[in-house]
Specification:
Largest sheet: 2 strands, antiparallel
Strand order of the largest sheet: 1-2
Number of strands: 2
Number of domains: 2
Structural class: mainly alpha
Distance between the termini: 32 Å
Radius of gyration: 18 Å
Strand content: under 5%
Shape: globular
CATH architecture of the largest domain: Orthogonal Bundle
CATH topology of the largest domain: Fumarate Reductase Iron-sulfur Protein, Chain B, domain 2
Amino acid sequence: MKINGTRKSNLKQTVEELSGVRIDSCLKCMKCTSGCSVAKETKMHPSELIGLLKLGAGDEILKSDLVWMCLSCEICYGRCPMKINTASLIDALRKLAVERGTTTRKGNAPLFNKAFLGTVKQYGRSYDLQMIMHYKFGSGSLMQDTEKFPTMLRKGKMALLPPYGAKKTVVKRIFDTSPGGKGKIK
């Protein structure tokens, strides 16, 4: 089978293994899309993504804007009569997109995710100042939005010092046992 000029791949099987979700159980009722928080902002909707996976779509689906714009709010999961966890499917697609190098620079979501998870791993919770620093250096937009920094400090929206009190051993165990393991952040 060909989709968009590419041969059928084992993407569906790989995504099912990574997410623990059976894609074929989808009824195409579109309740996931009707409740999706970002459906109006994306070119592809959750029901379309699942439909393409069912049809055997290849790596081109990893370039979908939905893969990086999904909020993982799980409204789709709550509405699905078959209890398909679309957020888990999208997490698996994100992982594969990074591994296979199909991520796009638009929006720098992979860079943001890496910066965010790096601070969580290091401090046990997010440290905004360090996360922003890593993101700014990685994206090359060092001076963008700097005028907002004093206001955020004054209003207490950002701390200068790293957080304390988190159970770092618990967070480390989560990173070590997550798919990909060994605490790697991609």
